[in-house]
Amino acid sequence: FVLPAAGPYEIVVYNVAGQRVTGFRGIGQGGTNSVRWNGRDDQGSDTSPGVYYYRLISGGRLATQKAVRLE
């Protein structure tokens, strides 16, 4: 993901039913950043391959994107 300036971010991953799966928080740099999801939910259980959505919140802005988890 790309941040226009350095600052805090929050990413929340949702399944296709709109249920929270997991999330990430951190301080990103201006420009390109990345997080690595190990495919586990907040309880540490493996998630199924398929379509997920993630919401990025940073600097008062919100963006939602689709991601595909492969096996």
Concise synopsis of the structure shown:
Helix content is 0%, strand content 55%. By secondary structure, the protein is mainly β. The protein is elongated, with a radius of gyration of 12 Å.
What do these coordinates show?
This protein is mostly beta strands and 71 residues long. 0% of the residues lie in helices and 55% in strands. It is built from no helices and six strands. The strands form two sheets. A four-stranded antiparallel sheet has the order 3-2-5-6, with no helix packed on it. The chain has a two-stranded antiparallel ribbon with strand order 1-4. The mean pLDDT is 95.
Class based on secondary structure composition and strand pairing:
mainly beta
> Which range does the strand content fall in?
over 45%
Q: How many distinct helices? A: 0
Spatial order of the strands forming the largest sheet = 3-2-5-6
What general outline do the C-alpha atoms trace? elongated
In whole angstroms, the N-to-C terminal distance is 23 Å
Please report the total strand number as a whole number. 6
Keywords:
mainly beta, 4-stranded antiparallel β-sheet, about 70 residues, single chain, 6 strands
